[in-house]
Design brief:
Belongs to the alanine racemase family. This protein is α/β, with parallel strands linked by helices. Helices cover 31% and strands 24% of the residues. It contains 28 helices and 43 strands. The strands form nine sheets. It has a nine-stranded mixed sheet, sandwiched between helices. Strands 30-29-28-27-26-25-24-31 form an eight-stranded parallel sheet. The protein has a six-stranded mixed sheet with strand order 17-18-22-19-20-21, sandwiched between helices. A hairpin with a 5-residue loop joins strand 17 and strand 18. Helix 4 packs parallel to helix 7, helix 5 crosses helix 10 and helix 8 crosses helix 9. It binds pyridoxal-5'-phosphate. The site of pyridoxal-5'-phosphate (PLP) has 12 residues, from helix 26 and strand 31.
Length: 826
């Protein structure tokens, strides 16, 4: 929708300088994102860090002629002829006011979503559930701030039948503005969570502030099971319809009768408005997804979606991937992979992202795009728009995949180079695919087109020995273990020993992203590394050294305390820094006899010493099972638990604040979920190994290498040092660049174990050397350069650990640092 510049001036209450006729359709706040200069109005925003006024000369040069400013440039009429300046007191407020006025042009339902967690997932899923019957305009990605919300609302247009917008706040006072701009008719509270209070004094205060969004709505959707939310709703004077959902209270508008988790799906049976019964199955099992799907179901039913349609669409829900991944591709290409829902707004953002990266200088910019599904526009409107955008955003080569794009190929006539294919496989088999060279490629495809396969082929296969780490598998494992736990049970993820070999930093980022309550590492330095890499989660240090206390305090790392000597030294160090109430974790020795206070004899003394100082406070108390992985030790575990239960209760009763109690490790979670207490500690399970039965849940790490050289060795000859590898038949022997210095144990040599070459067993021949090993590939179809799996997706690490008569932990943690870790997720 276009507005005349006169109208904009009136709407935002500006003094207009310059007097050129103009219509504006695009609102810009970040000069780097400029796309359609003639129709753009730039708002020069001032923040603590930056001042948009600095970009006026550059934008003028690039063709922008309409500016909203707080300070009019000197000699503007000479320097900037034919230009409109709208002078306002506050540019941000003007932007918000423009969006607010724009919003008031629409008499349509608008959903406003707030909450601390899951806003974007709820928004995207509502979009997936409702867009088959309504034309929806929604916030791009997570545009939910004081700037993001007006930019989102500005996207409402004459086709829109429903708006869905997120509202995020970081301090008191902000929601009122967002409410005025979004003016939702339906309010949705996604999960409030119990996250850290940033700028609020309490969770209630934060909740109430968020609920300001619901002013003037006709209905509010919220969970009765979130206590704070339920209480705040109770005290809200509200005349609209309260649409609550609950697992616990059957008087909720949407009562969840049951939640049944299968391997990869969850089935939810419900009763709606006390009458209608229904159920749906969603393709996720984690708690967050389940809660968010229920929130979405309530909105959809309220908006008149039929239960059958709801169930059908729920089954097809797609994960919400927010990330634009950048990967090194083959033949000098860089791949930008955007698996976010494909629609024109997100295409615009992705193209903008591509242009902002420094690496397209001198290289061709290529867009590989699939048909855009469910856009709500007819294809003769949509694709010319896409073509226009691609051209304006500097795409030099366009590859369209899908029937709709192919039939609309005429729309792309202005692009220099363009190709169209019906399917991904047609493209893969073409010369266009083979000819990709030295380009920056943006891949954007609706999931059903199978772009995963395409990316797989395009990314650079690193020809070295690498440990590939599948971050999705980490999340899947996390969720698998979470499925044993109550919603409120907290989780510590153990990422000691550099994340059991997988690399602590990336694992920690992933876990933080999935909101685990604590991360635990062995020593302070590991904690510092995490902090320096942007990890803000709570971090526990399992083996604090006496020399590291200052570091602990400086980086907010919470130590384990296991002895009086450590306790006293820590208290003294904290007192010296003037610290009070520093959280620590008390370890009790219930049978491991490694570290910890004696729960039988030392509790009184421990409590007394803790109480006579105020420098540190016990945040949690814990112990560790010696044999939760085997039924053989069940009676011993029972004794351990009893000892712990009594001693930890004793500690708790000496203090007023809640002390978290925890004892279950990975195997314990599975074997004794009834002993989950307040928190559990997940270690090996995260990395996909079920130590109860030595099976792999979701494999995380795959150690791979490639064949360096192959040779024929006749029977009677030997291979390797000390002539150990006697060749009994004429053989083909391959050398691979991995040796004991990389963590390939020498004991695997001399045919004690094998690796996989093109899916077939290739035994190690002779002694494994420091940097190289030799394998027998006789009869296996292979060539130099082929990939070899040492352990991983197809060869469980437990095969190696069994041969070595050890546990998988040792094999995983022995992969040496010189082996490159490569992280991926789908
Ligand atoms: C390593 C460790 C864990 C994790 O054990 P897993 O068997 O790997 O789950 C839990 N607690 C403590 C104290 C640990 O040292």
């Amino acid at each position: 929708m276009n507005y005349s510049i006169e109208k904009v001036a009136v709407l935002v209450g500006a003094q207009r300088l310059g007097n050129v006729d103009a219509n504006v359709g695009f609102v810009l706040t970040d000069s780097r994102s400029l796309c359609f200069p003639e129709e753009t109005i730039f708002f020069a925003l001032k923040s603590d860090r930056n001042d948009g006024h600095h970009y006026i000369p550059e934008l003028y040069r690039r063709g922008v002629r309409n500016f909203v400013v707080q300070d009019v440039p000197q000699d503007y009429d000479k320097l900037y002829p034919q230009t409109n300046f709208l002078k306002v007191v506050d540019s941000l407020e003007a932007l918000q006011r423009l969006a607010e006025r724009h919003r008031s042009e629409f008499r349509i339902p608008v959903i406003g979503i707030t909450g601390s967690n899951g806003k974007t997932m709820v928004k995207e899923w509502l979009y997936q559930l409702l867009s088959p019957q309504l034309t929806v305009t929604r916030s791009p990605r997570s545009y939910n701030s004081q700037i993001g919300v007006p930019l989102s609302v500005w996207l409402l247009n004459e086709h829109t039948q429903l708006g869905i917008f997120e509202a995020g706040i970081s301090q008191p006072g902000e929601m009122r503005r967002l409410q005025e701009i979004i003016r939702p008719t339906i309010g949705v509270m996604a999960s409030l969570g119990d996250a850290h209070q940033e700028n609020f004094t309490s969770l209630e205060e934060k909740c109430k502030e968020k609920m300001l969004l619901f002013k003037d709505t006709e209905a509010i959707v919220y969970s009765l099971d979130e206590k704070v939310v339920a209480e705040c709703m109770q005290s809200l004077s509200y005349s609209g319809t309260k649409l609550s959902w609950s697992v616990e209270y059957d008087q909720a508008s949407f009562y969840v009768e049951s939640i049944e988790k299968q391997d990869i799906t969850t089935t939810i049976t419900y009763r709606w408005q006390n009458s209608l019964k229904g159920k749906f199955t969603l393709p996720f099992i984690d708690e967050a997804s389940v809660g968010n799907s229920i929130t979405c179901a309530v909105v959809a039913l309220y908006l008149g979606v039929k239960p059958d349609d709801l169930a059908r669409r729920m089954a097809d829900l797609e994960p919400v991937a927010m990330r634009l991944e950048v990967k090194e591709g083959q033949h000098g290409c860089t791949l930008i992979n955007d698996s976010y829902n494909s629609d024109i707004n997100s295409l615009d953002i992705a193209l903008d992202f591509m242009n902002r990266r420094p690496d397209h200088k001198g290289r061709k910019r290529t867009l590989i795009l699939s048909d855009i599904l469910q856009s709500g526009e007819t294809k003769n409107n949509l694709y010319p728009e896409v073509a226009d955008l691609a051209e304006k955003r500097g795409v030099e080569k366009f590859i369209g995949i899908g029937e709709a794009l192919r039939s609309e190929s005429d729309a792309f006539s202005r692009l220099q180079e363009k190709y169209f294919f019906a399917t991904v496989s047609e493209f893969i088999n073409s010369d266009v695919f083979k000819g990709l060279r030295n380009e920056v490629i943006l891949l954007k495809g609706a999931r059903s087109f199978g772009f995963d396969q395409l990316t797989e082929l395009l990314v650079n296969k690193v020809h070295e020995t690498v440990l590939e780490v599948n971050l999705n598998a980490v999340v899947d494992n996390l969720n698998w273990y979470r499925s044993f736990l109550k919603q409120e049970t907290k989780l510590v993820c153990m990422i000691k020993a550099d994340g059991y070999g997988a690399g602590a930093v990336e694992i920690a980022k992933t876990l933080q992203d999935h909101r685990v309550d604590y991360l635990a590492v062995a020593v302070a330095d590991e904690g510092v590394t995490l902090r320096k890499n942007g990890i803000t989660s709570n971090i526990m240090i399992m083996n604090p050294e006496m020399s590291s206390f200052k570091t602990l305090f400086d980086y907010e790392l919470e130590p384990e305390v296991y002895s009086f000597r450590l306790l006293d030294a820590l208290v003294k160090a904290a007192q010296k820094e003037g610290i009070t109430g520093y959280p620590v974790h008390v370890k009790l020795d219930t049978g491991m006899h490694r570290l910890g206070f004696n729960p039988k004899t030392e509790m009184n003394e421990l409590i007394a010493r803790l109480k006579q100082q105020s420098a540190i406070i016990p945040r949690s108390v814990f112990s560790h099972f010696v044999g939760s992985d085997s039924d053989d030790f069940d009676s011993f575990s029972e004794i351990q638990f009893k000892l712990f239960d009594e001693a930890s209760k004793m500690l708790q009763s000496a203090f007023d604040h809640k002390i978290l109690r925890h004892i279950d490790n990975s195997a314990g979670i599975e074997h004794f979920p009834e002993r989950q207490l307040d928190m559990c500690r997940l270690g090996l399970g995260l990395y996909g190994i079920d130590s109860r039965n030595n099976e792999i849940i979701n494999n995380v790490s795959t150690l791979k290498t490639t064949i360096l050289q192959m040779r024929y060795v006749p029977a009677g000859d030997t291979v390797g040092y000390s002539r150990k590898g006697k060749i009994e038949r004429d053989s083909v022997i391959a050398a691979i660049p991995i040796g004991y210095a990389d963590g390939l144990n020498r004991k695997l040599g001399n045919r004690h174990c094998y690796c996989l070459v093109n899916g077939q067993h290739a035994p190690y021949v002779g002694n494994i050397c420091m940097d190289v090993a030799m394998i027998d590939v006789t009869g296996i179809e292979c060539k130099e350069g082929d990939s070899v799996e040492i352990f991983g997706d197809h060869l469980p690490v437990t095969v190696l650990s069994d041969v070595l008569e050890t546990i998988p932990y040792e094999v995983l943690t022995n992969v040496s640092n010189r082996v490159k870790r490569v992280y991926y997720q789908d």
